[in-house]
Each structure stands twice: as structure tokens, then as C-alpha cells.
Amino acid sequence: MIEFFEAMQFWHWILLAIVLIAGEALGAAGFLLGAVMASLELALITYIWPDLTWQQQISLFAVLALLCSVWFWYRFKNFNQATNQPQLNDRAAQLIGGEFALTRAMKGGQGKMQVGDTLWRVESAINYPAGTQVKVVGSRDMVLLVIKAGADTE
User: Fold this and answer.
1) Structural domain tally of the chain?
2) Which of 41, 69, 51 is nearest to 8 (CA)?
């Protein structure tokens, strides 16, 4: 095994980058990008200076992978947070302002309401009978807060 490390050349690092990029394509969610970049950088370094020992190469790879990973994290940490559609994956927030009929009568301020193919839990300060038209005024976790439709305040 030590013979393999002693014979490492630049193309070994290119091969490692290909293997890591394949792993990234399988769903590493950006975790392997720093290691891919480090192995490509090391391929260039070992092409220019082929007399580096395997210990130097591995040490350089470790340092470069850490630095590249930190750089990628710093560069892309806010990438998925900025959006022009903040409610895209928040179905409860999308329902605010909508009016729907209660599926089941409310007891103790809680009930259920069918919206599309989903049965939602609802809460209100007042108990309403089944079939009452209610307006969604807010949400808490996956519970819709409702008032009677047409009522300004509860």
C-alpha cells in the first residue's frame, strides 16, 4: 500500500477529483466540493512540482480541502435563503386570507378543515359547527388560525 502512495502523480489527484465529483452528483449537497477543488489544485501542484513526497501531498490535500471547504461554505451559506417567493414551501402561509368550510365541528377551540387533498387542524377562540365558512388569519406550525368568514375580529 505504501508503494501506491510513493508513486502518486498528478493524474491520481485528477482521478480522485472525478470520483469525488461523482459522489457529489449522487447527493452530497456541496459537502465534497472543497475536496474536489483541493484535489484539482493538488493535481496542478504535483504537475508543476512532481518531486513532492506523498506525505507532503497528503498534508497539502488536507490543508487545501479544509480551506476550500471553508471558502465554499462561506461563499454559499446564504445561497438558498434569498428568495423572491418566501411562501413557496410554506403551504400554511399560502392559505392565509382564504375562506373554507369547516369539515368537522370545533370542540375546545380545535377542529378540522379540508383544503384540497389535505385535512388541516384549525384553532379558534370560538367553537363553530361543521360547514361554517371560516377565514384563515394565521398559522402556527401546521395549525391554521381561523375566524368566521365575514367577521372583522373574533
Assistant:
1) 2
2) 51
Verify that 64 and 114 share a domain, yes or no.
no
Same domain, 14 and 63: yes
Q: Which domain holds residue 116?
A: 91-148
With 70 as the cut, is the pLDDT of residue 153 above it?
no
Cβ atoms of 87 and 96 within 8 Å: the answer is: no
Q: What confidence tens digit (pLDDT) does each residue in 80-107 have?
A: 676 677 667 778 888 999 999 999 999 9
Q: Do the Cβ atoms of 23 and 52 come closer than 8 Å?
A: no
Side-chain-facing half-sphere of 69: CA atoms under 13 Å: 12
User: pTM of the prediction?
Assistant: 0.52
CB 20 within 8 A of CB 39: yes
Q: What is the CA radius of gyration of the chain?
A: 29
On the question of pLDDT at 154 being above 60, the answer is: no
- As a residue count, the chain comes to 154
- Among candidate residues 34, 52, 76, the one where a domain is terminated: 76
